[in-house]
């Protein structure tokens, strides 16, 4: 569970998002709907900028990757073939006293996280004690207390993996009992039995009710790619290795939807499925791990905020899987998954549909079912990662304070604000003329209300990287002041140079060149 300090930070971010028009609770005038949110004016801009960065990096920069936009509703047999009808379940457990519902595996993982925190604390203490002479690896492998904690984690992980793989729900509950896990709300250990809960939302198609007309809201976007594999391959004249990318909504009836927009029942995914020749999957797995972490780190949110987490509990169809985890306010959590899915997906759809989905390689005169290498990132989680790393409460040299969103300039909702120093003396007219030019290239905002200092603070709070101030000198020599958000430093530039100066600082092209 998140500690109070972490929860407060997430609470501050959520509060800031609402106050400044990034994210609102959905249907708020009707008291809202649990774990459902609407993106406001600045939130939708930031979200679109993240999408653009992903799409251009994935589709535009790779000649062998194309995009699609598949329907949310799909033929119900799709979900039978994918395994979602039979196996898309979470192990559910209730506390009889608090009446709260939990995922059994999450309760156990949180227990392991507590043990890992104890290891980290011991390592930090030793590092301070020994200084530069500290050998972290040796300490972890020889310190009796740390070794003991590590052995406990390994044993818990092994028991949980065994229980989940075998579907032994009684063993899963017994592990919760043996670990003496208490409900965080009631503090009691009065648990129900563990049971499986399918996460798909179902509805009826047209006027037909009952099982014959039952369809599902898609729980992932990947299946829309798999069922279109043959169409895309033929119409795009592509041959393996090639990829299909998609951004779209998915829906999961999560048992516990919490932590603001981190886990929601309606969310958006950015996925790319890469179709490859069997036997080349590990090479491509390493390739996409390197490409995806580079995409994240290019934003400058802090390299230490990312880490890889290899899956110990692999899905039955996977032969390698890892997560890129981000250091959210509630700790390191999954941001993106990279999975080697073998030929499970196309093989299953071939079997259930009766259509041939094999690729015939004219070079080798052989047919094969392509293996799939998947990269899948939650757009809402990416949004939260950007906000988490960017949200700063600063105390300035003059003793004043400001809340600033240090969003990477290329992603910022508003790129530049145009501010006449005074709302008279011809300054508004000059500022409006500059604004008309800038908004052809950038999402620009004109702001003439309140003192200039207040306007700077308002732009800081929405993450605007640059403010252009029009003053009396502008009327004399056609120069303006550019104020940079993070350093608050100001420089004088000519109006003629303004667009070029801003373009260099906020252009998507500049960011993509880093990849």
TrEMBL record:
<keyword id="KW-0030">Aminoacyl-tRNA synthetase</keyword>
<feature type="binding site">
    <location>
        <begin position="374"/>
        <end position="378"/>
    </location>
    <ligand>
        <name>substrate</name>
    </ligand>
</feature>
<dbReference type="InterPro" id="IPR002314">
    <property type="entry name" value="aa-tRNA-synt_IIb"/>
</dbReference>
<dbReference type="InterPro" id="IPR006195">
    <property type="entry name" value="aa-tRNA-synth_II"/>
</dbReference>
<feature type="binding site">
    <location>
        <begin position="252"/>
        <end position="254"/>
    </location>
    <ligand>
        <name>ATP</name>
    </ligand>
</feature>
<keyword id="KW-0547">Nucleotide-binding</keyword>
<feature type="binding site">
    <location>
        <begin position="262"/>
        <end position="267"/>
    </location>
    <ligand>
        <name>ATP</name>
    </ligand>
</feature>
<dbReference type="InterPro" id="IPR027031">
    <property type="entry name" value="Gly-tRNA_synthase/POLG2"/>
</dbReference>
<dbReference type="InterPro" id="IPR033731">
    <property type="entry name" value="GlyRS-like_core"/>
</dbReference>
<dbReference type="InterPro" id="IPR022961">
    <property type="entry name" value="Gly_tRNA_ligase_bac"/>
</dbReference>
<dbReference type="InterPro" id="IPR036621">
    <property type="entry name" value="Anticodon-bd_dom_sf"/>
</dbReference>
<dbReference type="InterPro" id="IPR045864">
    <property type="entry name" value="aa-tRNA-synth_II/BPL/LPL"/>
</dbReference>
<protein>
    <recommendedName>
        <fullName>Glycine--tRNA ligase</fullName>
        <ecNumber>6.1.1.14</ecNumber>
    </recommendedName>
</protein>
<comment type="subunit">
    <text>Homodimer.</text>
</comment>
<keyword id="KW-0436">Ligase</keyword>
<keyword id="KW-0963">Cytoplasm</keyword>
<feature type="binding site">
    <location>
        <begin position="334"/>
        <end position="335"/>
    </location>
    <ligand>
        <name>ATP</name>
    </ligand>
</feature>
<dbReference type="InterPro" id="IPR004154">
    <property type="entry name" value="Anticodon-bd"/>
</dbReference>
<dbReference type="InterPro" id="IPR002315">
    <property type="entry name" value="tRNA-synt_gly"/>
</dbReference>
<comment type="function">
    <text>Catalyzes the attachment of glycine to tRNA(Gly).</text>
</comment>
<feature type="domain" description="Aminoacyl-transfer RNA synthetases class-II family profile">
    <location>
        <begin position="165"/>
        <end position="420"/>
    </location>
</feature>
<feature type="binding site">
    <location>
        <position position="103"/>
    </location>
    <ligand>
        <name>substrate</name>
    </ligand>
</feature>
<dbReference type="Pfam" id="PF03129">
    <property type="entry name" value="HGTP_anticodon"/>
</dbReference>
<comment type="similarity">
    <text>Belongs to the class-II aminoacyl-tRNA synthetase family.</text>
</comment>
<feature type="binding site">
    <location>
        <begin position="267"/>
        <end position="271"/>
    </location>
    <ligand>
        <name>substrate</name>
    </ligand>
</feature>
<feature type="binding site">
    <location>
        <position position="220"/>
    </location>
    <ligand>
        <name>substrate</name>
    </ligand>
</feature>
<dbReference type="Pfam" id="PF00587">
    <property type="entry name" value="tRNA-synt_2b"/>
</dbReference>
<feature type="binding site">
    <location>
        <begin position="378"/>
        <end position="381"/>
    </location>
    <ligand>
        <name>ATP</name>
    </ligand>
</feature>
<keyword id="KW-0067">ATP-binding</keyword>
<keyword id="KW-0648">Protein biosynthesis</keyword>
<dbReference type="GO" id="GO:0004820">
    <property type="term" value="F:glycine-tRNA ligase activity"/>
</dbReference>
